[in-house]
Amino acid sequence: MKTFQLKVLACFLMVAIIFAACEQETIVPTQISDTLTTTTNKPVGAESQQSGSNTIPDHCGGIHTSESLLHSEKITELARSSGGSLSDRMTTTFSVQFHVIRSSNGTGGTTQAIIDQRLNQLNQAFAPTNIQFERCNEVIFDDRDSWHIPWAYYYDTNNNLVNDAYLYAYYYNVPNVINVFIPISMGGCCPDCIEGLGTYPDGNASTPDYISVGLDAFVNKPDVFIHEMGHFFDLYHTQENQFFGYEDGNNCYNTGDRCCDTPADPGLTQNVTTACSPCGWDNVSLVNSSCQYVGNQSFTDSGIYFGCSVSHTGQDYSYLFPNTTSINPSTNNYMSYAPSACRNSFTGDQINRINAAATFQDRVDLVCPNGNGGGDCDNDPVFSQYPLASSYVDENNCTSEKITVYSKWNIDWLFIETPNSSKLYRTDTGQLWCTNSASTDCLTYYSMTNQIAEWECCDEEPECDNDPVFSQYPLASSYVDENNCTSEKITVYNKWNVDWLFIETPNSSKLYRTDTGQLWCTNSASTDCLTYYGMTNQIAEWECCD
Question: Which helix (H) or strand (E) holds 212?
Answer without folding.
Answer: strand 210-213
